[in-house]
Amino acid sequence: GEDVEQSLFLSVREGDSSVINCTYTDSSSTYLYWYKQEPGAGLQLLTYIFSNMDMKQDQRLTVLLNKKDKHLSLRIADTQTGDSAIYFCAALGDSSYKLIFGSGTRLLVRP
Amino acid sequence: NAGVTQTPKFQVLKTGQSMTLQCAQDMNHNSMYWYRQDPGMGLRLIYYSASEGTTDKGEVPNGYNVSRLNKREFSLRLESAAPSQTSVYFCASSDKRTNTEAFFGQGTRLTVV
Fold first, then answer.
1. What are the C-alpha distances in Å from A56 to residues A39, A68, A75?
2. A8: nearest CA in chain B?
């Protein structure tokens, strides 16, 4: 079955860029997502990318997809203290309804 | 629109007790999910329901049962709670026909003592 992996922790200085990485195993994954979770809250969708795309940009967020390596990344430009949260990568196959999440990357933004 | 509503928000159970976590969505979504979140382990899929009338096991189904009561409601039952089931439980819904984004409830924090 699908397995999604992320590094557990990232610390950056305010104003720098953050890059959070994710790998997945199922090559049929068609929909790939980034969710954000703030303390004590549920998950909110940040952005997503379809497998027929290589890149998607949305204001400060850039998603890069390397299908060959099954690697997804989320870049946050000009990271702010309000970006401190846990970021989850998730994958969904085209013919599947099984939405699988990674372990989450805790982003800490230092002033 | 309320989105995805979970009840209760907090619960403490004794080992061996049973309980049902309720989830309802008002977005007319076909698919619903139950996840548990444990520190360092992310969200793990317990059960999901692709559409009304169907349910399937996820990554960690042991110790749980689910019921897709109707299109709106998807409940998760712990028949005999164990301390290992102490976790935060999230319900989510989505629909591939419209968009594929999953919407999440606010979570249920369950402690089994």
1. 27, 17, 10
2. B40
Q: Is the Cβ–Cβ distance between A29 and A98 less than 8 Å?
A: no
Residues B18-37: tens digit of each pLDDT: 999 999 999 999 999 999 99
Residues 47-86 of B with CB under 8 A from A: 48, 50, 56, 58-59
pLDDT-derived band at B1, boundaries 50, 70, 90: low
pLDDT classification of B69: cutoffs 50, 70, 90? confident
Facing A42 at nearest CB: one of B41, B58, B90: B90
Q: Is the distance from CB of B94 to CB of B31 less than 8 angstroms?
A: yes
Interchain pair A100, B90: CB under 8 A: no
B58 to A98: CB separation less than 8 angstroms, yes or no: yes
Written as one string, the DSSP assignment of B12-58 is EE-TT--EEEEEEESS--SEEEEEEEETTTEEEEEEEESSTT--EE-
